[in-house]
User: Which sequence fits this backbone?
DNA sequence: GCCAACGTTGGC
DNA sequence: GCCAACGTTGGC
């Protein structure tokens, strides 16, 4: 079992939205690295840290898990969608997603500022300068440490 | 709102 | 294949 972190802007889709929906197809990912991780590396049951970005207090806010095998992101074929990709071939879809299922909301937000102060987390991808990946792997040791801060 | 960092696009 | 221009991300 592997561990991941996904970013979401709470104005667009928050942990409370996921708590309400219980499960959500993680659509709209238009970055090849992130797509490759969903397509090639995620397995049903993998753990996911849910992270709020571009907000007053960015940080880890909940736990989810991977809830489906990878499949084609339907929004790429929908001309009405902001994620529409006219260059994607329906016979060979460019964008792949998985479903995410709600597990729980943390008792508190664990803020980015706090994670940055922890030496043992200094090599986390999330904390690397200029990191813009919206999906990234998390080491088990980092996963355990972050959740121990709750 | 600013701006650094990055990924993608497209001309050559 | 290079690289400048551009758009986006995301913290502050």
Assistant:
């Amino acid at each position: 079992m592997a561990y991941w972190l996904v970013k979401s802007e709470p104005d667009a889709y928050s942990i409370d939205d996921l708590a309400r929906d219980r499960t959500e197809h993680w659509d709209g990912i238009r970055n090849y690295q992130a797509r490759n991780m969903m397509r090639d590396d995620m397995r049903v049951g993998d753990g996911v840290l849910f992270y709020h970005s571009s907000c007053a207090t960015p940080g880890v806010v909940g736990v989810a898990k991977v809830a489906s095998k990878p499949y084609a992101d339907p929004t790429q074929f929908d001309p009405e969608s902001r994620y529409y990709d006219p260059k994607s071939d329906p016979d060979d879809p460019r964008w792949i997603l998985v479903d995410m299922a709600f597990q729980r909301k943390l008792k508190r937000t664990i803020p980015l500022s706090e994670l940055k102060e922890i030496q043992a987390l200094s090599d986390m991808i999330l904390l690397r300068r200029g990191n813009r990946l919206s999906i990234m792997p998390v080491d088990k040791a980092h996963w355990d440490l972050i959740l121990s801060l709750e």
Notes: Helices of chain A lie at 15-21, 32-41, 112-116, 140-148. The mean pLDDT of chain A is 95. Residues 32-41 of chain A form the longest helix (10 residues). The CA atoms of residues 115 and 121 of chain A lie 7 Å apart.
